[in-house]
Write a structure and sequence with these properties.
This protein is of the alpha/beta class and 219 residues long. Helix content is 32%, strand content 19%. It has one domain: TIM Barrel, CATH 3.20.20.70. An 8-stranded parallel beta sheet has the order 1-8-7-6-5-4-3-2.
Amino acid sequence: MKKIQISPSILSADFGQLGIEIKRLEDAGADMIHVDVMDGHFVPNLTIGPPVIKALKKQSSMIFDVHLMISPVHKYIEAYADAGADIITIHPEATDDLNLSILKIKELNKKVGVSLNPETKIDTIIEHLKKIDLVLIMSVNPGFGGQKFMPEVLEKVKKLRDIKEKQELNFDIEIDGGINFDNSKTAIEAGANILVSGTTIFKSNNGDIKKNIELLRSK
């Protein structure tokens, strides 16, 4: 079992002082920074673009785990790579050619992630598992922070873990959506080794980020 990593979502941070918030996360022991990019088209919300990521990256040496919820995604991959994304995660539904988009990310020397919405089947990405570094299982419908965790997606996590072990593959299994102290243990037991969390990390225990990260990791 890989070490459990915590990727705090800055969607729940104070957008007025993102640079300071990222420094707080770094000091608190976060493993990476999760950046949710939404276009108001693929998902019903708008967030940050490449210029903001570029500015934040200059202030931090942390891994930027960038989740692109934009469509069509292919033409924007290079812009986010240039901005400083270390991991670029895309949705199969957001590209005309998933294999081509995966190769594009790899050509730019970035880690490749593919995200599965709650209703998206694993079969969609089976043939690509040997080429990717991470599978992001969405445990809410993407678009907004603070949603309630959908426990039914844990079966998908377990199935993915079994495929990974049987085929001796090395991709990470990340889970995002409503992750808190009550469900983090079951997510880890199902096979997730990277937990994305926003509200719980920034708001629980009077905003004690370090404590919240440690609690999620140890559950």
